[in-house]
Amino acid sequence: MSIAKCKSLHVKPGPPPSFHDRAVSDRHVPGTKPVWVRNATLWTGNANGTEVVTGDLLLADGLIKAVGIIPDALLRAYPDVESIDARAAWVTPGLVDLHSHMGVGASPKLQGAGDTNSHAAPMQPWLRSIDGLNTHDESFKLGIAGGLTTALILPGSANGIGGQAFVIKLRETEERSPSAMLLEPPFGLNGSQVGADGPPRWRQMKYALPCPRVYSQTRMDTFWQFREAYDKARQIKEAQDEYCEAALAGQWNLVEGKAFPEELQWEALVDVLRGKVKVQTHCYEAVDLDDFVRLSNEFRFPIAAFHHAHESYLVPDVLKRAYDHPPASAIFAAFSRYKREAYRHSEFAARILYDAGLKVVLKSDHSGVVSRYLLHEAQQVHYFGLPENVALASVISTPAEVMGMDHRIGFLRPAYDADVVIWDSHPLQLGATPTQVFVDGAAQLDHPVVTANKDKALQTSPAVPDWADEAASTIGYEGLPPLAPENIKEQAVVFTGVREIITHNGTTVTSAEDLAVIARDGVITCVGIHCAGVTDAAGARIVELEGGALSPGFVTFGTPLGLAEISSDTSTADGPVGEVGAVLPRAVDGLLFGTRDALLAYRHGVTRGVVAPQSSDKLVSGLSVAFSLGALNKVEKGAVTQRIVALHAEVTLKAKESVSTQVARLRALLLDAWRSDTGKQASELIEAAQRVVRGEIPLVVKAHSADVIATLLDLKKDVEAETGRAFSLTIAGGTEAHLIAPELAASGVGVLVLSPRSFPYDWERKRISPGPPLTKDSNVLALVEAGVTVGIGPHGASGPSSWGVRNTRFDVIWLLLESDGRLSKEHALALASTNVEKLLGAKSSGDLVATRSGGLLDFGSKVVGVVSAERGVIDLL
Q1: Quick check: 803 and 344 in contact, CB under 8 A?
Q2: Separation of alpha carbons 610 and 587, rounded Å
Q3: Which domain of life is it from (predicted)?
Q4: Chain Cα centroid distance, residue 847
Q5: Cis bond leading into 397, ω under 30°?
Q6: What is the DSSP annotation of 353-384?
Q7: Per residue, what are the HEC states of 781-795?
């Protein structure tokens, strides 16, 4: 036993030499029919992601049997094969997520189902994510609906060493156990052992630096604990090597009566030093990246990937100094600035890393980014400059390689696992949706809903803008390039090459010829073919739009944007709401201008924000304000566009008091306001409530549960019955609003959906309408179909986030495509502009956004200017 163990110490992990000779997968489900996918456009992952094959795909016995041309003899071997005509649709390997917490941070979030983080000690290499994997997590089936088939399940980041991670397949198994979901579990788990002629399997370990939040310590403390733990593992490793040197030399007198040196707590860390573990390290800033690279060289172990790695693009040479090989960077496309470590994130990071010769992976950190939308991460980095082949590889073949599974997943190759996705459009087009997903050869979507009328143009890779100058500026300014627009005042700007103009009232002007549009001091003065010859054009700035458009600017609501720079750092924010009553907070008093999220959103067509005072534990939070995202301070003309917009409240199952108590307080507030003598001085809260019941401003109530929303409709009836007057009620949140859509429409109550792509984060957001391929309609479209006035807020992490505001136009394009022709372009634009203003009681801003190479709802266009009437400027971006 000791001799065999000693011989195995230096054997590197990987598949056995005969692995690709296998005829049946170890994960094959008996009774699964073979599948013949015909007439497909196959992205194989080969040749660095550049190989695309037009042909067929045969799946049988849990494996890919053939790619491209299928020999007749092979087809005859499977007489019961099921044939699918792909009709030239794109087919890829299943998506692979290198960083997920699904199962250990189960959804919906409930007490007893949170196993992501241990708070027992900073360094715990002995913990295992498999021991906390909840198979009832709703995330698995939703992930499959997004084309995700494999994920690495990591412990959380509260610890320097969080523990061992495990690769799983997402499909449900007959055994219904976590163990049955594992892909190549390390030998030793459940009593399995390395074969005499086979190498070990890869193990995975999660690290995090820094980890001061839980243990109140500095980076210096954490780094010492890393070195201390590694020194312990090194001592054990050296004792093992000394023991084995004697044993293998036959010097039994030196080891007689001695056990093989090992400690269960530290055996995984010893394997790290032997190069048998894929080290996955949560690391944000240059200081942390440099620290960990030094650690890898001091103790001589390779790093598989730096995760999050928000500043890795700024220090590529640091990564290249790591022991054995440069780590990959497993990054987000947009999730950023939520804490200080993420402040220098750049949308160009993926392209910059690729240009530096480093591997790029896009991952979810589910549910930081919901794993169902992992492909959207690749779509975004492609938009910002990452080549098509690398962008697709970043969520398929590259993560498979980084986790040591590229011998069986991540590629369309014979003898690889039959994890395959058929898409309704090119995978890098927004809204690309699976029409079928196979895991181990078994179809996962029972009755997929297919969007039937997608344009043929969506079957090719999207054209994207040139961002070379912006990427270079990002590097030059160490991740913080200037974002303020160039203000043009008292000078005309002529937009040439205009093909479309959409006005705020929904009127659209299109032209087969290039039009010119002249603007001065925020006002359009001429539109037409001959505008370039008018007097106002003399000495003007010329902006060529190359077939572009002018469209209404987007309006955002639902995040702290305007009241916080870094959401988790209170020193950068207005702060939480205090006691409400005699005084009522007004968001206008806490406005912050020129934040990076605001200016980035402005550069992507979101020109106006509405924000309410921020509260997580108050029934009423205060009065919202409307403001310009392009303004740099409050005293600028047009910076504050409406000082008081609406009164805001929240009714939630998570409050300290019951829902019935919250509703009773809200009802009493409105009725007391009505009964009060308006001639007497009242508290600021009562005065605001009086304005609501008089119909002067809306009451905006954040609520997600359909039961709570239904109760709020009853409250509206009660108040209106006593007062004899209608008042404006808007629901913000509305995840379950689709369940009572007809009742909302009949009551004249609109919904601001926060966020447009629903996920069951918690119990009051559990009953979602996920949209294709699982249901015909998403929440938004179900409400629109019922005649409800709907606006949308941005997507984000666990709900709307300030960093997500920039992606508003992506969200609108997605809804437009998903509607399958039921939404017009004008209606889609209204979801994030005029409808938001209407539901909040905000006056129209009148801003027009200029885009180059298409309109605001064309994925490949680029925002280059804003015509702002309220601010009296034309901003060039």
Answers
A1: no
A2: 9
A3: Eukaryota
A4: 28
A5: no
A6: HHHTT--EEE--TBTTS-GGGHHHHHHHHHHT
A7: HHHHHCCCCEEECCC
- Residue 189's SS3 state is helix
What pLDDT shows up at residue 501? Answer: 94
The rounded distance, in Å, linking the Cα atoms of 875 and 877 is 6
Domains and CATH numbers, the chain: 32-94+410-450 (2.30.40.10), 95-189+202-409+451-458 (3.20.20.140), 485-553+846-876 (2.30.40.10), 615-622+642-845 (3.20.20.140)
Question: What's the pLDDT band for 209 if we cut at 50, 70, 90?
Answer: confident
Tokens describing residue 817: 């495509």
**Of 506 and 88, the one with more pLDDT:** 88
How far apart CA 436 and CA 256 sit, in angstroms, is: 61
- At CA 287, angle to CA 600 and CA 277, rounded to 5? 105
- Give pLDDT, residue 213: 65
Residue 832 exposed, middle or buried by CB count within 10 Å (0-12, 13-18, 19+): buried
How many residues are given for the chain?
877
d(CA 48, CA 601): 33
Lowest mean pLDDT segment, chosen from 65-69, 490-494, 527-531: 527-531
Return the percent helix, strand and coil in the chain, to nearest 5: 30, 25, 45
Mean pLDDT over residues 531-548, rounded?
82
Q: What contacts 6, CB < 8 A, 6 or more positions away?
A: 243, 244, 247, 248
How does pLDDT run across 106-132, given as a tens digit for each residue?
899 888 888 898 888 999 999 999 999
pLDDT of residue 467: 97
The confidence score (pLDDT) of residue 679 equals 60
Q: What is the pLDDT of residues 25-51, one digit of tens each?
A: 999 999 999 999 999 999 999 999 999
DSSP 3-state of 253: helix
**Mean predicted lDDT score pLDDT of the chain:** 94
d(CA 596, CA 613): 20
CA distance readout (Å), 61 to 67, 184, 245? 15, 17, 44
pTM of the model: 0.95
Strand 606-611 versus strand 625-628 pairing type? antiparallel
What separation in angstroms does the CA of 537 have from each of 515, 523, 530, 534, 540? Answer: 14, 14, 11, 6, 5
3-state SS assignment for residue 407: coil
pLDDT for the residue numbered 729:
98
Encoding tokens for residue 563? 């009241």
Percent of the chain with pLDDT over 70: 97
